[in-house]
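Any chance you'd type out a single protein's sequence alongside its tokenized fold?
>
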Amino acid sequence: MSTLLHSAPTSSPSFSRIITPRFAFAPITRISLRNGVRSKAIEAVKLENGRPSASEFVVSGSGNAIPSYVVAPNARVQDLVNRNDTRLRIFSGTANPALAQEIACYLGLELGKIKIKRFADGEIYVQLQESVRGCDVFLVQPTCPPANENLMELLIMIDACRRASAKNITAVIPYFGYARADRKTQGRESIAAKLVANLITEAGANRVLACDLHSGQSMGYFDIPVDHVYGQPVILDYLASKTICSDDLVVVSPDVGGVARARAFAKKLSDAPLAIVDKRRHGHNVAEVMNLIGDVRGKVAVMVDDMIDTAGTIAKGAALLHQEGAREVYACTTHAVFSPPAIERLSSGLFQEVIITNTIPVAEQNYFPQLTVLSVANLLGETVWRVHDDCSKPNSCKLFKWVDEDVKEDEDVEEEEKCRDETQKQLEEARKENHKLHKKLDVKRRKRSILLCVVGLCLVITLFSCVVRVWN
């Protein structure tokens, strides 16, 4: 019987290229407040399962324990006192403990103690090693390969928290397995994404926090709230730090289905032009490139996708881009599934750099020189805190609401164009009416002038005739 007991796992030292993006802040100590005011601790407090240890506190005259190093106004002291009442707990499964540890560090907490073991027959056993009664619990567990093992482990963790009387249970799923089975493409097929959503809901989860779902409609499969964040801002921030001229960039979608994603990415990347690789798929995990839509000659091509599985699609697309004259090809993706033979295809020299995130842990033997791993821990950590603190999600999480945002922008542009056309028509009509009025006024003025001239002439003639009679 193999046993796994972990409370604060750390990353392997061989993971040398894990990069934290510039937009994410350094880990800070979060303070949960009843009055909605936050403050940062002056020093790091020694934490025990997310709570300051008793040695760090002294008892004030009112009986409240406050940090011994604090000399602050009453409001600040009260804020720090409330920190001891935090109900936030972070637990990690066995799928990606390194990411869970980074999230906990960002929040200024330690991972909760949990015991996970597997019996000889493969059954999973989960026991929480600390009380979560009345707590807001976040379970970090991507359903990456082995998908069935990790999914079952997540379900049992949720059930354990529910039976331990946790107040709220949020399943933090950086990578949602079975997301590609979100519709029926042929007869008598299952929709596994809906089935997995039902399993998570029935297990007792109150909320789901997911990162870069394969398709937006997967959120509708859950009968509980879903917070959907996007890892693309992390990749955008990294690309912005590289010395690539914006005029040389072109964003490439490896298939027609990812056009909306690539178009939104291109808008954020200095409004770069867009190219599309047209492909025909003859079977699962088998792709054939047909042709390229767009110009990539002499440019730096950035291929954008939500995941890389066997790398067949993106590798054949990169080969086509080189044939069409692309100077360099970058591959950017959030989820690195890396099923064989993905590593051989990605390290074959087709790509200048392969940029991924750590939503799925990369095995040590799968690292190659062109691979760069970016961390989404701060993005997820900030979202976790805002969910716990009943705040809205961070703005960076809303950068890539691809389809909805693009459709809304297109509708806004169409409405603006219609309003402009209507305004121009109204202006033209007003100008015509004004012109007609001016013509009428001119005619009246001319008539008046002629009438005055005639009257004046008559008066002159009458006056002349009178003068002649007087002289005679």
Notes: The longest strand covers residues 274-283. The two ends are 149 Å apart (CA to CA). The first helix runs from residue 74 to 82. The chain has ten helices and 20 strands.
